[in-house]
Amino acid sequence: MPILDNKTYRKQLRAWIGDPALTFDLLYSASRDGCTGQAFHEKYNNQGPTVSIGQNSAGYVIGGSTSIAWSSCRNYVNDDRAFLFQLIPNMVKFARNGNGNDVYDNGTYGPTFGGDLNYNQTTFDTVDSYGYGLDVEEVCSVSEPCGNNLLFFSNSYNKSGGYFNTNGCSYIGTNYDANGFNTQTFTGNSDSYLDIEVYAVKQGHLEDELYEKDKPWRKTEINDWSNKTRDKLFDELVSFSTPSQAKVPAARLLLVGSVGAGKSSFFNTVRSVWKGKVHSQVATGTAPHSLTTKFRVYEIRGGHQTPAFRLCDTMGLEEDQGLDVGDMAYLLDGHVPDHFQFNPAVRITRKSPGFVKDPGLAEVIHCVALVIDGSTYKVIPPKVKDKLLGIQTLARDRDIPVHVVLTKVDKVCEDVAEDPSVVFHSRVIEKKVKEISDTFGIQSNHIHPVKNYESETSIDPRVDILTLNALRQMTGSAEDYIEDQLDHMEETDTQMSKMNIKR
């Protein structure tokens, strides 16, 4: 979970910066984006004020704040609003002392503050000891002392033992007031980081205004979040059926998303709803590549109440691997059979094993659901975003409805994490929905906030209700699509009959 998901930390940083209505948007994470200066500057240059935070192996949480936008100018920058801070084990602000050189902005460095805190500054053939502040950078091959600073290094910036063993240095007191602290009490003598995160600091709402109990931003038919409501929604989906004349046993809902977006977790959550207990059928996790390697058409089973829809799972989308958009047309058109083994190095063709040459309406996809992680969607790699947009275009070219399953809303809003039933009252979630609607051009009522079962061991009616509500909207769209296809086929048959042409 991002460090600033903690409401206490956000409140303290707002107080230190001097604005109670600030928001903190995570744009860079070393764990997710790579622990290199290049990755940091690609994400964060020209983004305005920022807060950078590291959590190290000693359990300390330290960081720095600057009102200056990073720009890779390769020079010192004075910032009279910059400061360093510690959140764990103590909440302490370290103000600038007026010596200047408050921030060092270099495209090959991570965020760097004065001469006090340095997460990582390295090169492949030498290690220059500038003693700068907050720096998340590349790879170090040699170790040299950095004056009175600390320097930790590694031969790569992949995690080792769960931490980035950076070449960071820290020496509190050079450009920022020490407040009686030294390296030991400031960092716990550790520059090995569990993660390093950088947040954009923006004007927002007061924290107390982020949740409005009597003013939902979306009107729904959910009157309460009890088991009674859960059962009502469940019964609606159990009784769902496709038009009898279509001869489609079940509507097919295709889940598509980037690696780690929560696609397989959503399926497991749906399965848990039907089982009445937390259930995990599909492998999930945080592996760098997709854990799903086959196209699967899952029937949702739970006692004798199998609904008339299927969830179709695919490989996760990646920048240079994973599912290719060119293959998606075959998936949408029903040419790819259940259990088809994907091969990222080989495109799907008519000669692929099991290729369905003449699929009917029952085999095609009836609704596409883009599964998007609400906590990280702003930093979706450009190539992955292009794939999502490409899939959306393919679906729309076929008149297939497109929805969004917005996952991990509990990581977006702390109020929702504490009580999922406030999701439609949270301004934070409302903002996320609007931003995704604008980014992908999808109407907001087709964007469904959900919370997947992850650490829970028992079901929660509030989680179930969000899941069932999303499914109800998607199956409704799938039904509309099937009816439209029937109308189209009837029109085609009529025209062919008039021309004495047999289908």
What report would you give on this structure?
The chain has 503 residues and is an alpha+beta fold. The protein folds into two domains: 3-203, no CATH class; 221-498, Rossmann fold (3-Layer(aba) Sandwich). Helices cover 27% and strands 18% of the residues. The protein has helices at residues 7-17, 30-33, 37-44, 183-187, 227-238, 263-275, 325-332, 382-397, 409-412, 414-418, 427-440, 461-498; strands at 22-29, 50-56, 61-66, 75-77, 83-88, 92-95, 103-105, 112-113, 117-118, 164-165, 169-170, 192-203, 251-257, 294-299, 309-313, 340-341, 367-373, 402-407, 447-449. Strands 1, 2, 3, 5, 6, 10 and 12 form a seven-stranded antiparallel sheet that branches. The protein has a seven-stranded mixed sheet with strand order 16-14-15-13-17-18-19, sandwiched between helices. Strands 4-7-8 form a three-stranded antiparallel sheet, with no helix packed on it. The protein starts with 6 loop residues before the first helix and ends in a 5-residue tail after the last helix. The model is unreliable at 121-156 and 285-289 (pLDDT under 50).
